[in-house]
Input
Amino acid sequence: MTPAVNHRVVLAARPVGFPRESDFRIEEAPAQEPADGQFLVRVLYLSLDPYMRGRMSAVKSYAANVELGEVMVGGAVGRVVASRNERFAVGDAVVGHFGWQEYATSDGAGVEKIDESLAPISTAVGVLGMPGLTAYFGLLEIGRPRPGETVVVSAAAGAVGAVVGQIAKIKGCRVVGIAGSPEKVAYVRDQLGFDAAIDYRAAPDMSQALAEACPRGVDVYFDNVGGETLDAVLRHINMRARIAICGMISEYNLEKPAVGPRPGWFLLVNRARMEGFLVFEFRDRYREGLAALAAWVREGHIKYKEDIVEGLAAAPRAFIGLMQGKNFGKLLVRVGKE
Amino acid sequence: MTPAVNHRVVLAARPVGFPRESDFRIEEAPAQEPADGQFLVRVLYLSLDPYMRGRMSAVKSYAANVELGEVMVGGAVGRVVASRNERFAVGDAVVGHFGWQEYATSDGAGVEKIDESLAPISTAVGVLGMPGLTAYFGLLEIGRPRPGETVVVSAAAGAVGAVVGQIAKIKGCRVVGIAGSPEKVAYVRDQLGFDAAIDYRAAPDMSQALAEACPRGVDVYFDNVGGETLDAVLRHINMRARIAICGMISEYNLEKPAVGPRPGWFLLVNRARMEGFLVFEFRDRYREGLAALAAWVREGHIKYKEDIVEGLAAAPRAFIGLMQGKNFGKLLVRVGKE
Output
């Protein structure tokens, strides 16, 4: 049983500044019959993530860029609908780099079966997937928070930030979130249990807002946004502070490289550290991370929120919204219905 | 025997931009008679170091600022000329924070006796003192070079940089120095054995010069200067590169905080780290560091060069020259003759 048509989203043009819908193109092509050793996946949920902006550009990044005319990359959850691979059977729920399309053919590389007993399968690209693992390893291995320390996280209501803050609470820290709307601020504070939260769009003075929210200074900053928010946090770091650089969404859509105050003096005076990391560095420990995250979700220590848009055709606009902070929770595209 | 007069240099005004001679004032005062438990030191060599610029300003730093009218702070070498302290005898060579003056009274806090058998006593504020220890711990503990890696150091002919490069050579690294004159470049390459050196004042394109000097990229950057040199190095860092921030002399004399390209993207893409450090963090291990440095000096693996100016009155102008890179070697003021 091979479906006739695969709709897919390809990169039509490299964005200049913020991506536009015309940078994407929806194409139809026949879904590919699995060869020996391959299987065919029907995609159910496509994950939209800020890192995709980097893949759309021609600038060197940590992974290959998407070429013009190629299918947009992306993690997704689906079900095997045809298989000539012994490890994957028809009906298996799987997560992998299936891209922005309805059907993907795979030889199993980078594909994992999802344990459906843990949580809804959509979480395999969220709290129990790459964003959750990014939060887990970035906070614990790069940030290394100790009980009683103050942890600040930006994009705090996002897929990564929300998990960072909740893990920091589990570890006994004071947690301050930075987010971009009154609803997001209320969510992280009232629903997720953060100690304080700052609406960066509304705060007249971020530095002052941070001073109030962090009376004992900042020991760990988990940075998803870069830019002026990072500048403000640097003014409040404590001795031996750790800044885990996970992303810099405020800078991804600038037409010229971002310029700002140099951080060196703050790092020197405070003997502090700024360190970039990628979740893939910790791939040997994903099992440990997923076990911890799954337990915390099961016990109610970690909550999650999904923002689901309907249909692959809605993906470009939803991604553009993600770049502008319009999503509220982990952004997913429901590409197919079960 | 207490001498009648102590000449000293006090802070007359907080500099705006580059310090000027009028920011200093030379005063005469009676040398202070040691009280019980104290001793009197006649200063022989005053060390001039870039960090002093920070102490002259009112901006928060890692140590107390010098107040207007106070004696300028500084490490110095001298001899005990009167003592009412059991640990220090007349004739002992000592190193301590004696400041910019001819005579200092001390209770022994922060003062160490110098082992005169190791090297000339002036080295106690140079290769066998704070600059040497800064190089030792900063390179080995923050930079953590591995054999075969490429280490870049700025202010490479300076008191710290020259030692950094030579230790990196001892550790089996490719070493590239950045310095500010043809003579300094020749010195670090031909006398100190660096593999390559770049004259940043003459290079038409620092990034290109670094690409040529570092064909396998940069694994460790020991940064003494900050600013555009750091920007250029960031473009060439390797995966998991370590940037040890020791100083940023290019930024100390700016009237407004330095602005430049944001480093986050380079750190993220390369999973790299930027970390500020101060030698004082390693004070429990000074003995280890000094033993290693002394052995390397004795065996000829580490050479050093002193740039000595005569007389305390010359200190302000010499310090201003240091801010402009005019010294060549460890800058010392011969405050008194043996």
